Amino acid sequence: MSDSIKRFMQAADVKKEQDPWATVEWLSNKELVGAEELLMVRATIAAGRSHPFHTHPTREEIIYVVSGQAEQWVEDEYRILKAGEMVLVPQGDVHGTYNPFDEDVTFLAILSPLDGSEPNIVDVSEQEPWKSLREKQNRPPVE
Questions:
Q1: Torsion, CA 59, CA 60, CA 66, CA 71, rounded to 10
Q2: Domain containing 123 — which CATH number?
Q3: Does 34 fall in a domain?
Q4: Rounded distance, CA 65 to CA 43, Å?
């Protein structure tokens, strides 16, 4: 890595965006720190909200909970993840992060490879079986 490539990310340098499903803070990508293979974001999903079922056809992902708790799905299985817990989502697996709890959940999402081919994300939340999967498991509704 050349000396001209940024290696450190400090709070003032974080790129923050409001997505429909979360507040997203970009911590690592090619433009921010010169990462060649890793993408990392810190995301906060408000209480009662979700990042519904989707897939990354060309990327694998680690989701690590920093604070709060999440109802994390991978395919047709879910676990309640608390701070300090994580899940590995294999490339192409359908997954979703739901927050039916009374407090926000913040997590790190680390994806690789950085330059996955398009599309990078595919929303499947309106397709069966994903559309009704949470309801069939008697999970509380979220937006």
A1: 100
A2: 2.60.120.10
A3: yes
A4: 10
